[in-house]
């Protein structure tokens, strides 16, 4: 690996690796549930519209766990470098990249945006026709090849969710990179790439929590805490945290949770407890546990007539949740995939500004444990009565 030297004006140490193959360490997964192997890999230079990034910090998310245990066989692609929640510094850029340059501090996003397609121009989604996350894709979009290779033998190593951050260097589409303020600490900014944007986006964009609303959050992992924070910032009057681990209530209180329910402490179903606490049910419930039984409790905890349940947890492919139409749906529901922080560049800058101006507790992001659940798909049920 080329040595870093020569400090530039933005504080980044320039290097002599531009346009060259970099040899670095990576955690490579060679098969389902196998131990990650720390080994040297070759990272090739970025091609047209791509960037190569030095990963400074990366965290583990539940989606990485799902890929490791290979819940869905159609997603299998080995060897592979996982990881999608990270922060780093641009090492070099490929042809045609105009908005990023060497030394920029960045956060990768797995749902990239071209800015020109019908999806990017819509306010209803943050999907992009070309750069959306696709768990079936394990190569670069431009040429259908990988940028990772084994050091000995040159075997291709597959990419993961447009990012692959369990490596010292990675190559991404420039559309999947957001430039951030260099004053923001990179060891905390990786949280914006996944956990915070999922949870806060669920509260702001999907549920659109209003001032005075009542909220129940099922599962107080990283995403659940971010939901609570998003609801708090929106002015929710009651935020109920539900978890079987009482130790999570400490961080939950910091992030805005006002009341706690531990299912182990009650003989009655949780939804009955919550409906009694709120005189009929909460306005919004968020399922952040990836468990269909919890999903049912979250749904039944909402108020009849207008309650809304937002599903963020990852559920195994073969799991099914039974909803009886007459008792539950009463007018139908909607499926809203990937509606989190709706537009990467704009929303990331807003979150950073809001955090560092002291309007939220995000200044101490260590309260969010970034090793739990990640949403790849969210289901919104509306409990509106049919006419």
Structural descriptors:
single chain; about 375 residues; 5-stranded antiparallel sheet; disordered N terminus
Give a brief rundown of this model:
With 387 residues, the protein is α+β, with helices and mostly antiparallel strands. It contains nine helices and 18 strands. Strand 12 (214-218), helix 4 and strand 13 (238-242) form a beta-alpha-beta unit.
What features would you describe in this structure?
With 387 residues, the protein is an alpha+beta fold. The chain has helices spanning 62-69, 186-189, 195-206, 222-233, 248-254, 270-277, 292-300, 325-329, 344-356, and strands spanning 4-7, 13-15, 22-28, 37-43, 50-59, 85-93, 105-108, 148-150, 156-157, 169-173, 177-179, 214-218, 238-242, 259-261, 284-287, 308-311, 333-335, 379-382. The strands form four sheets. A seven-stranded mixed β-sheet has the order 14-13-12-15-16-18-17, sandwiched between helices. Strands 10-5-6-7-11 form a five-stranded antiparallel β-sheet. Strands 3-4-8-9 form a four-stranded antiparallel β-sheet, with no helix packed on it. Helix 3 packs across helix 4. The radius of gyration is 21 Å and the shape is elongated. The termini are far apart. The relative contact order is 0.14. Mean pLDDT is 80; it is low at 1-13, 324-343 and 366-387.
């Amino acid at each position: 690996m080329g040595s870093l030297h020569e400090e530039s004006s933005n504080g980044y140490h320039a290097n002599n690796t531009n346009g060259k193959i970099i040899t670095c360490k990576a955690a490579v997964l060679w098969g389902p549930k196998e131990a990650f192997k720390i080994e040297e890999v070759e990272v090739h230079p970025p091609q047209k519209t791509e960037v190569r990034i030095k990963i400074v910090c990366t965290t583990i998310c539940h989606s990485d766990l799902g890929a490791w245990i290979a819940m869905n066989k159609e997603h299998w692609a080995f060897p592979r470098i996982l990881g999608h929640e990270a922060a780093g510094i641009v090492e070099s850029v490929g042809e045609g990249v105009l908005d990023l340059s060497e030394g920029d501090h960045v956060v990768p996003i797995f749902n990239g945006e071209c800015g020109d397609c019908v999806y990017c121009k819509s306010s209803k989604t943050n999907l992009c026709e070309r750069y959306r996350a696709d768990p079936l894709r394990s190569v670069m979009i431009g040429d259908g090849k990988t940028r990772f290779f084994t050091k000995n033998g040159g075997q291709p190593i597959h990419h993961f969710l447009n990012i692959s951050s369990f490596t010292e260097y990675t190559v991404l589409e420039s559309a999947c990179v957001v430039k951030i303020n260099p004053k923001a600490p990179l060891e905390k900014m990786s949280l914006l790439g996944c956990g915070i944007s999922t949870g806060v986006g669920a509260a702001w964009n999907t549920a659109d929590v209003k001032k005075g609303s009542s909220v129940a959050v099922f599962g107080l992992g990283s995403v659940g805490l971010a939901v609570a924070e998003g609801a708090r910032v929106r002015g929710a009057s009651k935020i109920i945290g539900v978890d079987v681990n009482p130790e999570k209530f400490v961080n939950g209180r910091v992030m805005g949770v006002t009341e706690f329910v531990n299912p182990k402490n009650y003989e009655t179903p949780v939804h009955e407890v919550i409906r009694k606490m709120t005189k009929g049910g909460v306005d919004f419930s968020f399922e952040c546990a990836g468990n269909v039984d919890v999903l049912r409790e979250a749904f039944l905890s909402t108020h009849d007539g207008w309650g809304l349940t937002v599903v963020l947890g990852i559920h195994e492919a073969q799991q099914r949740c039974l909803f009886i139409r007459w008792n539950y749906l009463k007018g139908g529901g909607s499926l809203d995939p990937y509606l989190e922080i709706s537009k990467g560049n704009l929303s990331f800058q807003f979150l950073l500004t809001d955090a560092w101006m002291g309007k939220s507790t995000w200044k101490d992001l260590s309260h969010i444990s970034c090793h739990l659940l990640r949403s790849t798909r969210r289901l919104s049920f509306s409990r509106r009565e049919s006419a």
